[in-house]
Design brief:
transmembrane helix, globular, membrane, ion channel, transport, mainly alpha, 69% helix, ClC-type_chloride_channel, 8 helices
């Protein structure tokens, strides 16, 4: 009876910290997504009104900015993408340091607004995974839930980035966790629910402004091609 009570208590704490991580990750992904879009549009419009040759130079500006940021602000510490997450999950003593949040945030932002890339997916995933890792390091939950908290952050980040909580949940489970168990389902589902509410209230503007009038069942087979 005592063991069951302890397990239930730990699950409750896991849900609470997953919710907190989800809120922070939602704000992080939301700001990166919309600030990047805003400045990319401004720079593209300004460059388009001038000499078109400037489009060749713009990516160089972004890459150069990132180089000096990494050299002087982040002390030459490298970013290696999603492999960093796998390393910290496979080796419990390894952690994603806090600098990964501003480093990946700025890398993604500067690369995209100057046309050096088309998306901030990896930056969002690693930054929000670091948020989850920070929650784990604060020991708000049982020490066995590192993977769960990292995945909670990733779930929220991807959910807000693509305005799809289901996409965030599936990505965290299939790509980051690479396994499925009860505690992972609890943390990722709690995070996805918060992300769904966030998207509904703050980021639900449709990409394509048209209304679906009706569905034709005869079209279903073509969806699988």
């Amino acid at each position: 009876m005592e063991r069951k009570r302890i397990i239930t208590h730990n699950y409750f704490k896991l849900v609470l910290i997953s919710v907190l991580i989800s809120v922070i990750s939602c704000l992080l992904a939301f700001s990166l997504k919309h600030l990047t879009e805003f400045f990319e549009h401004k720079i593209f419009t300004a460059a388009g009104s001038m000499n078109k040759a400037i489009f060749i130079l713009l990516p160089t500006i972004g890459i150069t900015s990132i180089y000096f940021l990494r050299k002087y602000i982040f002390q030459n510490r490298k970013n290696k993408g999603i492999t960093e997450i796998y390393k910290t999950l496979d080796q419990r003593k390894e952690h994603l340091p806090f600098f990964k949040i501003p480093s990946h945030y700025l890398n993604g932002f500067l690369t995209v607004i100057f046309g050096g890339s088309t998306g901030v997916e990896v930056s969002t995933v690693v930054a929000t995974a670091t948020v989850g890792n920070m929650g784990y390091k604060r020991e708000f939950s049982a020490k066995m839930y590192k993977r769960e908290l990292v995945c909670a952050g990733v779930t929220a980040g991807v959910a807000v980035l693509f305005a799809s909580p289901l996409a965030g949940w599936l990505f965290a489970m299939e790509v980051i966790a690479r396994k499925i168990d009860k505690s992972l389902i609890i943390s990722c589902t709690a995070s996805a629910i918060i992300a769904a509410a966030f998207v509904f209230f703050f980021d639900s503007t449709p990409l394509l402004h048209f209304r679906i009038g009706e569905w034709h069942l005869i079209a279903i087979p073509f969806l699988f091609y």
